[in-house]
Amino acid sequence: MKRDREVLRSPFLAAVVAAALLPIWVLAAAKQQNHHLQRGIGDKKLTFGTDGQFKILQVADMHYGNGKTTPCKDVLPSQFATCSDLNTTAFVRRMIEAEKPNLIVFTGDNIYGFDVTNAAKSLNEAFAPAIASNIPWAAVLGNHDQQSDLSREGVMKHIVGLKNTLAQVNPLGQDAIDGFGNYNLEVAGVEGFSFENKSVLNLYFLDSGDYSTVPSIGRYGWIKPSQQYWFERTSAKLQKAYMSKPLPQKAPAPGIAYFHIPLPEFASFDSSNFTGVKQEGISSASVNSGFFTTMVAAGDVKAVFIGHDHLNDFCGELSGINLCYAGGFGYHAYGKAGWDRRARVVVANLEKTVKGGWGAVKSIKTWKRLDDEHLTAIDGQVLWSKSSVGMRRKKPVGGN
Ligand SMILES: *[C@@H]1O[C@H](CO)[C@@H](O)[C@H](O)[C@H]1NC(C)=O
Ligand SMILES: *[C@@H]1O[C@H](CO)[C@@H](O)[C@H](O)[C@H]1NC(C)=O
Ligand SMILES: *[C@@H]1O[C@H](CO)[C@@H](O)[C@H](O)[C@H]1NC(C)=O
């Protein structure tokens, strides 16, 4: 009897203690978040360069294994003997040297868990060229990152502890969110000019999951309502700030989203309306969770960049949003022998003001580079420009 009472009483006591401590915990969490913000906005604040440019290198699907003992997949027979994960590392290094980006974004399947013996070690090695470059970097998870000795939460926690990363496990201030690695980054205008304290380009990072855990639904994961709710609130908050004083703007700052698994809408194109190639099916979730519609309704996202399908590298526009693959990057990832591994670059340019200063974002462009001798650049295209938005906003002729 007594034992029963004690058992009953202790959870009750625990709840009372927890309730009393809750404000302290919340404060501590807020303090921690502040500290993180300070780190992000202090030494690691993202800003446009003095040339009015912000360039992002996207690395999709490194599929890093154990290093030099891990062989390459789908290379020419003549290349097989001398090819390993070290070729993936060399490609990351070459891309960083060639493009000198302001930010490097890894869009998942950073490691290929099934073949990894020590996830922490492989993650360290996979991100090593980014860390060594001293350029800030971000990462999200794919569907293979957790298939070794760390869970998805474990992988993301390891990543956020690495040097120079701006990645976060999840946003603080929202009680529950699905997945690990949902966060946003703000990019301010050029230091010393009028937009230096405003985010003129917004980057959203989401965990698109791994595999469905719903028995009646097969295949891959999807972006859940909790994540879409976080995105909506974040987008609304950023738009409000951008369109308020000082320097209130008429339209939201452009946004870009990065995650791993394609949305079902990636299947809306064919070669008549995309740039790049489609050499395999679109491996999205078998259900549509509505994130594309959520982004269209929010109104700020102009382009989405993903990986997952290594043989697709196209960009197509649907309802004002560019849906872009990066194309396969890693050598231990399936690919196509003789079809070069590749990476995607995105650059946003600011408009010059009449007084010789820097204004808001004028255009967003993209291209890819192949891992050949000269890192050949291909498929350059303008994804968005401010003037085209202005034109679309004109009153239609004969409209009411
Ligand atoms: C991989 O790297 C080795 C060593 O630098 C090089 O000889 C080989 O050509 C590379 N293989 C591919 C497919 O790039
Ligand atoms: C940006 O903020 C800093 C620090 O508060 C301030 O000194 C500076 O004048 C601000 N710049 C603009 C353009 O408002
Ligand atoms: C692309 O073109 C095809 C016809 O070739 C059409 O069915 C499809 O709707 C188009 N997609 C978009 C997004 O315009």
TrEMBL record:
Assembly information from the UniProt record: Homodimer.
Residue ranges of coiled coil: none
Protein name: Calcineurin-like phosphoesterase domain-containing protein
PANTHER family reported for this sequence: PHOSPHATASE DCR2-RELATED (PTHR32440:SF0), PHOSPHATASE DCR2-RELATED-RELATED (PTHR32440)
MF terms (GO), sorted A to Z: hydrolase activity, acting on ester bonds; metal ion binding
GO cellular component: cytoplasm; extracellular region
Annotated compartments: Secreted
Superkingdom field: Eukaryota
Keyword annotations from UniProtKB, A to Z: Glycoprotein, Iron, Metal-binding, Secreted, Signal, Zinc
Cofactor: Zn(2+)
Calcineurin-like phosphoesterase domain span: 54-310
Organism expressing this protein natively: Malus domestica
Pfam families reported in the protein's UniProt record: Metallophos
Main location: secreted
